[in-house]
Structure formats: C-alpha cells, structure tokens
Amino acid sequence: MTEHLIDPGIVEAHNRRNGDELAQDYEALARALSRRGLDCEALLARVSALEVAVPSWGVGTGGTRFARFPGPGEPADIFDKLEDCAVIQQLGRATPRVSLHFPWDDTAEMASVKARGEELGLGFDAVNSNTFQDRPGQKLSYKFGSLSHVDAEVRAQAIAHNVDCISRGQALGARALTIWLADGSNFAGQSHLAQAFERYVESVRAIEAALPDESWRLLLEYKNFEPAFYATVVQDWGSCLLAAQAVGRRTRCLVDLGHHAPSTNIELIVARLIAAGKLGGFHLNDSRFGDDDLDAGSVDPFRLFLVFNELVDAEQRGAWDEAPALMLDQSHNVTDPIESLMLSADAARRAHAQALLVDREQLAACQARNDVAMAAETLRRAYRTDVTPLLAEARRRIGGAIDPVGAYRVSNYRKTVAARRPQATGSGGIV
Ligand code: LRH
Ligand code: MN
Ligand code: MN
Q: Which of 38, 218, 284, 310 has the fewest CB atoms found within 10 Å of its own CB?
C-alpha cells in the first residue's frame, strides 16, 4: 500500500469539483480526434505510459552563482526529497522514479532510501556522479579536472567515485549511471585538447567495465560551456558520440536540452544519435540563453514537440533497440519546485501526445512530392491540438489530480512541511 502524503480525500474532492467540465472537454476532444480518424482512448493509453524521472536535486530551490533564495519547507535531506517527489507523483502520475546524485544524496544507507521509496510508491532512475566539486576531506582536488585530469591518481579517484555510484545504484535498483563532466580549460594552451579527450575516454572505459550486467547503461552528458569557458572536454554531441562509440555498447549519449547554443537544432541531433544507435536519454528543461534550466516547455514548447516528434517517428519506424530514458533536469529558483516539476512532466506528456497526433502518412506523402507548405502544416496541425483534457483524464483515471497545481495548493502541503522542516539559509548555489 502506497503511503499518500496528501489526503486522497482532498484529491477526490478536487476532482469532483472539476469532473463535469473535464468530461465535457474530453468528449469534445474525442469527437474532434475521431473526425481525424484518431482514437482518443488509444491515445490516452499511450500518453499514460510515458514516464519521466525526477531529479532529487530538483525538489530543492536552485540558485545561480550569485545567490539562492530558498523557499519555506525546503527538503533538508534525501528522505524529505523523496517525500516531495512522492507528492509530485501522487498528483501528476507521470513521475514514478527519482534520480539520485552523489555525494549530495549519500548521507543515508541506500537500503533505507530504497525502502522509503517503496513505501512512497517510488522507484529509482539513473544515478548521477559528481566530480565537479570537491567534497570535504577528499584526497585529491578536481580543480583541474577529474576523469580527464593529467594526473592518473586523480583520474583513478574519479573513476572510483563513479564505480561507487554504480554500487549505490545497484542497491537502489537503478539501471544506469549518468556522467556529466565539467572538465575543460579556461585558457588556450591550458590543456592539450586531444590528449584530454583520450584520457576521458580511457576513464569512461574503466567505468563501463564496472557496470554490473548487460542491462545497465552508462549515459554521457555533453555541454557546450560552463564551468570551463575556453574549451570543454565533452562539449557537444559529436564528442559525446565519439566517446560512446569508442567505449562500448552500453555507453550512450544523453541530450540535456539546455546544453546547446541558443539556435542549435536539437531535434536534428536527436535524429542523428538515433541513427547511430547511441541515443540513451534526455534531461528535459528549457532555456533562452544557455544552461538556464528553466521549466520544460516554458520557453519554446514547439521545440519540445519537435524533439518528441523525432522520438515518435523513430519508435514507429522501429529505429532503436530501446527507448531513451526521460528525466527532468531543471533549477527552480523562483517557483515552488513541486509545482514546476508537475507542470514540466505535464509539458513532456503534452509534447508526446502532440507528436502522436502527427499524421505520418500525410507527412511522408508531402515530403515525397516536395509539398513544403503542407508538410510543415501537417506538423503544426498536430502541435496546435489542445490535448489538455486528455492529459487531465489520464491522471484522473489512476487517482491523480485533474489539475495537479490546483490540488497541491488546496492541500497546503508546503505549509505543513514548512512547520517541521528547518528553514534553509540563502547561502550556496544548487542543492
Ligand atoms: C550542470 C548540470 C548537468 C547535470 C546536473 C547535475 O549543467 O545541470 O546538467 O545533469 O548539473
Ligand atoms: Mn543535465
Ligand atoms: Mn545542466
């Protein structure tokens, strides 16, 4: 029996209040879709199956390198974080797994973390290593790099940390390790560009060799800049793909949407990685300038749709051996993280639903006869469809809230936890 942190009676009352309106809207959508030859119920089943993991660090208030303004009732440890993640799942029903980050989350025994997750109805997604910060008492510093460091001893320390993350992941029932590498240089000449990459690949090979079995995945993130401002070791999908291909079958690329220059065509990168058989996963978020980590779909929902359009197309063509893992990776600096994460999971499902609505036969026919206007309009027609009732009905049917943020506000959850969790101070950056 899952322990619900929000009284199910509150959710039921909220759904009763909004139920009639939803029923009418859902029926109208079903009628409109059926005129287009689409079965709303079949679509609902597909949409309900889409799951997005939540990062443990996402439920804390984020920050910039200038300041952090923590809200009331911030989670103080991994158990508090799990509770907030459970609320997101209870109301939104799209986020059944949590992704942990070490050492941020290694303050407790993994067995008790797993047990608490089970009580709350949560599983565990990819674990994340951290060699971009030095932890207190750490023998060697990562100031000049970690997996690509010039000193073999530092590399060995960073490899050992990643291997430790894998065993923590095993204890949690996770099946993937994600590595985001901050290594790079701030000055031309500071680092040998080719050799740094070779050292990185060699280190990742050692980590892949430590994966427990064939089902495990090693997901490599790339990022165009920051914290290194002259050159980053794994700066783009090209370097990431080279690394994944050099390392082995279980190593794949992870596309964090925020890790690209503003005008980059991300859906094209997605198509290329699928073609190479190396698309392992996503960190969903949105951005206007750089790695802004804004809520998924909040700046450019059309781009999110185009990314999902590639995924649905690849799935329908049977173009991959397994679907990429989806996770949110955002920094909530000015919103309640629980609200942002619920809205972002909804944005992912919305983009997925819209992508499922694309008339692919018509699109292929337009492409074949170079009917550019109608090809573009075929995509836009799917994108313009308001699937809000479908997303709400999918939640309602399995006990979630028709309007997750509305129900959350009525529940007073934040106020309740603020009364027992210590108020966090504003110092420090991310969780
Ligand atoms: C840094 C970053 C990256 C990781 C996360 C832990 O850019 O946001 O995306 O996934 O830190
Ligand atoms: Mn990321
Ligand atoms: Mn990032």
A: 38
